[in-house]
Amino acid sequence: MNAYEQLLVIRDRLEHNGASEDSIDLVDKFIARASTERDSSTSVPMAMMVRHLLRQRESLDNYAIYNDLQELLETAHGTRVERDDDDAPYAYEEEHKPRPHSYYKQQKTKEHDQKK
């Protein structure tokens, strides 16, 4: 699908998801810009178009637009995953266990003994 067709699909999905009017207005603005590309044979992935919309000032300044587009991006990628708390620990939950000074002292003596 070209950019124009992708924007139409994005607009339909936003309406289906119950997105805010601001989000739909933003996409309408880009549909008007892309109307010259109606017959283009250049294929553009939906995720790329949504990322482009996410980088626009209107998206960055308006939480509703940003959240609507993020939701659309997650469904486009299929990355909406339910996380089970037992799967894997978070990075900040892992305990840091530094080695004692004696460990490094032993390593140094081993290296010194091997060189002899």
How big is the Rg? Answer: 26 Å
Q: Specify the overall morphology.
A: elongated
Summing up helix and strand content along with how strands pair, one would put the structural category as mainly alpha
Q: What is the helix tally?
A: 6
Q: For the report, how would you describe the main beta sheet? A: none
List the helices and strands and how they pair.
Blueprint: H1 3-17, H2 21-33, H3 46-54, H4 57-61, H5 63-77, H6 101-115
Give a brief outline of the structure.
Helices cover 62% and strands 0% of the residues.
Please give a structural write-up.
The protein has 116 residues and is an all-alpha fold. It has a domain at 3-77. Helix content is 62%, strand content 0%. The chain contains six helices and no strands. It has helices spanning 3-17, 21-33, 46-54, 57-61, 63-77, 101-115. The longest helix has 15 residues, at 3-17. The protein starts with a helix and ends with a helix. The mean pLDDT is 83.
